[in-house]
């Protein structure tokens, strides 16, 4: 299905929907800036820059998920784990703006919907699950890796379904031959696999950082990873 991608191109969505989501995205980003200021400190500010640069670099690398289909890191779950939901959403948004303006990856007219899906919906869905999982899973390397993997899958699928909603509201004739159910099924199935690939990257990255500098992992809030023996002894 041509046009089925999370980096929405120009003309996939009609003007009213694109404009409405652009306005909604700007309002949400302003709110993220206001909340993000409360989190920024001497450690988080430089970390945000590193996270944005890392996501930008890794997004340039595609990995195969099906014959003829490839995906790349979106970064919402990774950003939420390392710098929190507010700053994380801003990091992903900055990456998407640079990609659209400099590399033409995603349409300029679809920049609002793209940021809404990948930076806002993706990061929010990931962080909600992260908070839940870190309450029930052991704070070990395995527990953190599982959290990163599952949060990445949910983040990518949530962003994909957000696009499906946008298309239902104002999709153009580019996909007119396909029903909304077929579009939703294709987007969900494909991005479920992409989410697994992203989850492996996110889990590896976050666990590596947590083992060396746990103070830089926002989701741990200054805590450390427990060892298996420590967990067993506490039990």
Helix content: 55-70%
Structural class: mainly alpha
Order of H and E elements = HHEEHHHHHH
Total strands: 2
N/C terminus separation: 52 Å
Strand order of the largest sheet: 1-2
Radius of gyration using CA atoms only: 18 Å
Q: Oligomer, anyone?
A: single chain
What is the overall silhouette? globular
Per DSSP, the total helix count is 8
Mean pLDDT: 86
For the sheet with most strands, the description reads:
2 strands, antiparallel
What is the strand content?
Answer: under 5%
Low-confidence stretches: 229-235
Which helices and strands, and how do they pair?
Blueprint: H1 15-39, H2 44-59, E1 63-66, E2 69-71, H3 76-83, H4 85-103, H5 111-136, H6 141-170, H7 180-212, H8 228-234
Annotation keywords:
8 helices, 235 residues, 2 strands, two-stranded antiparallel sheet, mainly alpha, single chain, disordered C terminus
Characterize the structure shown.
With about 240 residues, the chain is mainly alpha-helical. About 70% of the residues lie in helices and about 5% in strands. It has helices at about 15-40, 45-60, 75-85, 85-105, 110-135, 140-170, 180-210, 230-235, and strands at about 65, 70. It has a two-stranded antiparallel ribbon with strand order 1-2. A hairpin with a 2-residue loop joins strand 1 and strand 2. Helix 3 packs across helix 5 (about 110-135), helix 3 (about 75-85) runs parallel beside helix 7 (about 180-210) and helix 6 packs antiparallel against helix 7 (about 180-210).
Question: What would a concise description of this structure say?
Answer:
Helix content is 70%, strand content 3%. With 235 residues, the chain is mainly α.
